[in-house]
Amino acid sequence: MAVPTLRTGSMHPFRPVDRTQLSDPGYQAFLVLRTAFTVAPILFGLDKFANLMTFWPKYLAPWIDAIVPGSAQQDMYVVGVIEVVAGLAVAIVPRYGAWLVAAWLAGIIVDLLTGPHFYDIALRDFGLLVAAVALARLAVTYAPARTRAGAGA
User: Fold this and answer.
1) What pLDDT sits at residue 23?
2) Is 3 exposed, middle or buried (0-12, 13-18, 19+ CB in 10 A)?
3) What DSSP assignment string belongs to 65-92?
4) C-alpha span between 61 and 65 (Å, rounded)
5) What sign has the CA pseudo-torsion 32, 33, 36, 39?
């Protein structure tokens, strides 16, 4: 079984992808996860300002609302900004952005487990956390860190 070779020149997010890479199942998984963890946090983050999908403040644990200044809705504005930044980080530097998303999801899980009994959503978010960790690990191969010479993604 041949091991696919890494072509670091094609890993930059704004460079064309080597077509042979598109047949690599690992690279396909990387692209799916990178796309999902770019788009979803940005959309959910923007919705924290509009409350179109749901009324987001209802998910905030009372103890968190008590220690954070402002109203629960104002807290959601901060959450929204953080989620948009996390999505952009995944788009630009997935190797590190995925860890940011995983840490953020861990915080959301703590909120959901200690708040108003959203255990089912906490379980779903644990699955998302696992997927974010998988993206971070895939990014080591498919979006390596830049070197001083500027190689890589």
Assistant:
1) 87
2) exposed
3) HHHSSS-HHHHHHHHHHHHHHHHHHHHH
4) 6
5) negative
- For the chain, report the end-to-end CA distance as a whole number of angstroms: 27
Angle at which helix 25-47 crosses helix 72-92, to 10 degrees, equals 150
CA distance 84 to 89: 9
42 backbone dihedrals φ, ψ, rounded to 5°: -65, -45
Q: Which two tokens stand for residue 54?
A: 């749901």
> Would you place residue 7 in the very low, low, confident or very high pLDDT band (cuts 50, 70, 90)?
very low
Token couple for 120:
């089912």
pLDDT band with cut points at 50, 70 and 90 for residue 114: very high
C-beta atoms surrounding 127 within 10 Å: 10
Q: Distances from the Cα of 65 to the Cαs of 44, 73, 76, 118, in angstroms?
A: 20, 10, 10, 16
Other residues' Cβ atoms within 10 Å of the Cβ of residue 4: 13
Tokens of 112: 């959901």
Retrieve residue 24's tokens.
């690599």
What is the value of pTM for the model shown?
Answer: 0.82
